[in-house]
C-alpha cells in the first residue's frame, strides 16, 4: 500500500492540510488585484499554498504564471525566466507561444529562440549580445495581459534573491516603476529568507516598500493536523490517536515539511494500531536520516554560536542579559550580535522583532537530544 504522506514537493488536493484562512486571504487579494507579499521560513508550505489557492480560484480569464528565483543571479536570467513563465501561462503549446512572440514581441526580443525541453513545453534563451529592450521586457506582463485580454497573476518564489543581482537597488527600482502601474497583473511575491523579505517590503528607503499586503505565514495548527493525520491513517487501514498526532506535531513544532516526514516514517514502521513507542522511534529515525546534515551545521559553528543556540533552545528571552551571558558563556554583547548575524546568514535562526527561533525544527529536536540531554 502506498504511503499517504507527501513531503519535499508542493502538494495539493488530498495531500494539502487545511490553511482555509490563508487561501481565503489569497483569494481576496486576487479578487481585488492587490499585490501579495507572502513571507515564512523554508519548507513551511508557501509554494503549496500559492498553487492550491490558484487551483481553487475559478476565473476563466485569469492565468497564473510561476517563477522560481532560486537559481537566478542576474537580470538576464530573471528576464529569461520572466518571459518563459508569461508565455507558458498564456499559451498552451510551443507553436502558439512562438507565433505570439513572433507577432507581438519581435520589437522587444529580436533574438529570442525557442528550444524543446523534456521537462517543460519549451525553454527560452536570449542570444548573447542581443539588444533586448529591458524596460519593455519588464512591462511584458501588462503587454501580454492586454493583448490576450486576460488577467495575469504572476507568482515569484524566493523573491529575496533579487538582492544578489548586480546593482540590486537599481534593478528593484526599475521593476517597481513598471509593476506598480499594471492594472491587469497581480504580483504574488514570496520568499523564505524572512529577515531579507521583511527588509525588502517594510524598509521605507527601499523600492518595494509597501508594494503589497504583507502576509506572514504561520505554522499549521495542531487542531488542523489531528483530523488530517487520523484520516490518512484510517484510509489505509491504520489507527492513530489524537494524542499521538499531538506528540509528533509538538516535537516538530508543526513544521510542515518535518511533520509530514515524521508521519510518513511513523506510518511505515507501525502496524495496524500505532503505539507510543512507534512515535518515539519515528522521531529517532527522522533525526538519523538528517544527522549528517545536522552535524555539518554544528561543524560550521563557533563555540559562542553553539552556546547561543543552547540559550535559544532553552527559551531564554533576554539573551543580552548579564545572567544569560554568564550562564551560557555567550561572550560580550558585541559577540552576541556577531553570533546572530552569522547564524542568520547560515539559515540556522530566524528573527522576528525580539523573537529569535531556530528555523529547522528537526535540527532543534536533534540538537536538544544530543547536546542538552
Layout of helices and strands:
Elements: H1 20-32, E1 36-39, H2 46-55, E2 62-68, H3 75-90, H4 94-104, E3 112-117, E4 120-126, H5 134-138, H6 140-148, E5 151-157, H7 168-179, E6 185-191, H8 194-202, E7 213-216, H9 222-235, H10 242-251, H11 256-269, H12 276-289, H13 291-299, H14 303-313, H15 322-328, H16 333-345, E8 349-352, E9 355-358, H17 361-371
Helix pairs in contact: 1-2, 3-6, 9-10, 11-12
Concise synopsis of the structure shown:
The chain is α/β, with parallel strands linked by helices.
- Terminal CA distance reads 38 Å
What percentage of residues falls in helices of 4 or more residues?
A: 40-55%
% residues in beta strands: 5-15%
List the helices and strands in order. HEHEHHEEHHEHEHEHHHHHHHHEEH
Radius of gyration: 23 Å
**What class do helices, strands and sheet pairing give?**
alpha/beta
| Strand element count | 9
Largest sheet: 5 strands, parallel
Describe the structure.
With 373 residues, the protein is an alpha/beta fold. Helix content is 50%, strand content 13%. It is built from 17 helices and nine strands. Strand 8 (349-352) and strand 9 (355-358) form a beta hairpin. Helix 1 packs across helix 2 (46-55), helix 3 runs parallel beside helix 6 and helix 9 crosses helix 10.
